[in-house]
């Protein structure tokens, strides 16, 4: 049976999808009670979302380029930091999913020698007992000197709980991409098309031979402080590289072809949530998804040492 969201669906189904998407957008949950401290107001408007670049991963549904209209919104200047997440935990007693199940995924290069269960097809990811947001690289690690780093080892579900406590919400994929572009049209990165203009590293990604050797030429072999690199033109920090950021949308590779282009949301169900921005593990030889239009996904209960989130608030 053909996927009802595929590009060649009958016109009646296309019309129904568009109507349902438009209604969902109009009725979307709004968050207006959170503090505006540490946030930047973006006026919204039209922008070109997605890419038709030859560098795009076609299977991820990065294209086609489409004009999207967004309402104004506020967005965190940085990802949620370890310090901010600690305040949430102290106030609520919340225990993340990784803490509840007792383990999470850690990049092999950040672990001491030993035998670890790995992920088939991605053996650089290891299942590590005791890994969680307090101990992002296993029980021998901690965040004591990393309070200004992005919180990691948080699932989409964990991020939702933080947002609810803060009176905010996760950004839609469209809001995230609009913010990341910083007003530039159809550029690969928030600053232009050159990853390292004049030899300058403007984000935290992998240099070297992935996954064997990270030269850390940008100064970091793992996550970096949220203010380690310059902001984009909207004043947003750590929007590219460092750690993937959760978005509100369910992931689909072609749903957007038939969805409303005004405040678009993802489909109303799915198996995985959109993540954007890439991380310190991204490299052009394997995963150059640190481009602003790039996208991938993970299941909402997943947590790793390279996934984080930032919040938005409606105007």
Written overview of the protein:
By secondary structure, the chain is α+β, with helices and mostly antiparallel strands. It has a single domain (11-96, 149-314), classed as Alpha-Beta Complex (paralog of FGE (formylglycine-generating enzyme)). Helix content is 17%, strand content 18%. It has helices at residues 11-26, 82-92, 97-101, 156-166, 173-181, and strands at 39-42, 45-49, 66-70, 73-76, 103-107, 117-119, 122-129, 208-209, 213-214, 244-250, 273-276, 296-298, 307-308, 312-314. A 4-stranded mixed beta sheet has the order 12-11-10-13. It is globular, with a radius of gyration of 19 Å.
Structure in a nutshell:
The chain has 315 residues and is an alpha+beta fold.
Please name the fourth-level CATH homologous superfamily.
paralog of FGE (formylglycine-generating enzyme)
- Tell me the CATH architecture: Alpha-Beta Complex
The shape, in one word, is: globular
Rg calculated over all Cα atoms: 19 Å
- Biggest β-sheet description: 4 strands, mixed
- Write out the strand line-up for the largest beta sheet, numbering strands in chain order: 12-11-10-13
Percent of residues in β-strands: 15-25%
| Unreliable spans | 1-8
Mean of residue pLDDT values? 94
Total strand segments: 14
Q: What is the total domain count?
A: 1
Provide the descriptors you would attach to this structure in a database record.
single chain, four-stranded mixed sheet, three-stranded antiparallel sheet, 5 helices, 14 strands, 18% strand
List the helices and strands and how they pair.
Blueprint (H helix, E strand, L loop, with lengths): L10 H16 L12 E4 L2 E5 L16 E5 L2 E4 L5 H11 L4 H5 L1 E5 L9 E3 L2 E8 L26 H11 L6 H9 L26 E2 L3 E2 L29 E7 L22 E4 L19 E3 L8 E2 L3 E3 L1
Parallel strand pairs: 10-13
Antiparallel strand pairs: 1-4, 2-3, 4-14, 5-7, 6-7, 8-9, 10-11, 11-12
